Amino acid sequence: MKIANESYSLETLAVRAGQERSQFNEHSEALYLTSSFVFDNAAQAAARFSGEEPGNVYARFTNPTVTMLQERLAALEGAEGCIATASGMAAILAMIMALLKAGDHIVASRSIFGATQQLLGNILPKFGIETSFVDGGDPAGFHAQLKPNTKLVFIETPSNPLTEVLDVDALAQVAHARGALLAVDNCFCSPALQRPLEQGADLVIHSATKYLDGQGRVLGGAVCANAALTDEVFKFLRTAGPSLSPFNAWVILKGLETLNIRMQAQSANALELARWLEAQPGVARVFYPGLASHPQHALAMRQQASGGAILSFEVDGGRDASWRVVDHCKLLSITANLGDTKTTITHPASTTHGRISAEARAASGITEGLLRVAVGLESVADIQADLSRGLNSKAG
Ligand SMILES: *Cc1c(COP(=O)(O)O)cnc(C)c1O
Known about the structure:
Layout: H1 10-16, H2 42-50, H3 64-77, E1 81-85, H4 88-99, E2 105-109, H5 114-123, E3 130-134, H6 139-145, E4 150-156, H7 168-177, E5 181-185, H8 190-193, E6 203-207, E7 221-225, H9 227-240, H10 246-256, H11 259-278, E8 283-287, H12 297-303, E9 310-315, H13 318-327, E10 333-334, E11 344-346, H14 358-363, E12 370-374, H15 380-391
Parallel strand pairs: 2-3, 2-4, 4-5, 5-6, 10-11
Antiparallel strand pairs: 1-7, 6-7, 8-9, 9-12, 11-12
Bound molecules: pyridoxal-5'-phosphate (PLP).
């Protein structure tokens, strides 16, 4: 039982795409907790191993629950193929190991996830793959860093934590003009709000740990692309083994069923909270792509279905004032994680961006007064009340 993906809308695909029923006709997707698969006879075993006959062999390669997740996510991203991985970082590593080699070069935006920055900047150079980092989202800045051996341009949009929006279509043109691929980490928006492949990107990366699961339960990741690219990623995965557990795949698969409705509701909450924060005394600036005051508001509204669920804001009074807001929270979770139905608050300068130099932080706009909120599904009034306490408190 497979549905024809082309004719259905995103909401329907999120609930139905990729499901394959067993002989028991279960209604909900089955969880296949098995590491290996049996064959009818020796000839079939040989045919499965050689790839002559399609089918499952061993769960490092494929597992039916993981396959259902891959097909559903591919349908949502409008991709020919999808390879699920053990985590978001495993997806980035698998993409690079599969598609690049020693001597190749990457151009990446500087404001990417901290572990991605470490992987590109500190680990890959050991294997002969160098990365040039670009400050800001201007396509001309990326163009200037391209070399004859550049194979990959890697970005996140909107950026973390300042929500700068990068122009996927323009950057795809910059990359393609020099024969490089464009990969977009679509973790912040998810396919419910943004589909980078439709805008010219070649690869979409996911940390399924965030909005795809959406409830902070399991780790997972994925690479979505055309079949030629995902075939290469699959060859690396089945050999090197950063494969997704079927249990995690099953959790994420069920998470996708509510993705659209969660992203819509969490984005609406974020917009309401951003507007309220802009009007609060003591708040110097709010960064949220859905606000008219955002520098790339027009681009964001063209590229994304809404502003997303993540915002940041700067309070007057530096670290003392921003830590007071954090320390007065009783409801919001003080954690660096995001993409959960529970609202989280983070002080980037002392946590996620604490390891980079003060100068580099200042240059990228991550001030001591900056706070990031990943807005969940609680009532906005309750979130406002939680933030108000700290915003209205005096230095003690
Ligand atoms: C969390 C995150 C990752 C890494 O994902 P894991 O599942 O934690 O390995 C990559 N990119 C972005 C934007 C993230 O937020």
